[in-house]
Amino acid sequence: MKKTVKNLITWSPSHLITSQKSAFTLAEVLITLAIIGVVAAMTIPTLMQNFTNRVVETKLQKIYSLMNQVITLSELDNGPKEFWPSSCNGEGNISCEDYYAKYIFPYIRTQKIEHADINSQGNVIINFADGSLLIGKNTEDYFFYPNAKNYDKDNFLIMDENQTDPQRPTVGITSFTFRFAPQPNVWGSANRLHNNRGFEAYMYGISELTKENLINPTNDYACQENASIKHYCTALIKMNNWKIPKDYPFNVKN
Question: Which runs of consecutive H residues, i.e. helices, occur in the chain?
Answer without folding.
Answer: 5-10, 26-78, 96-103, 153-156, 211-214, 233-239
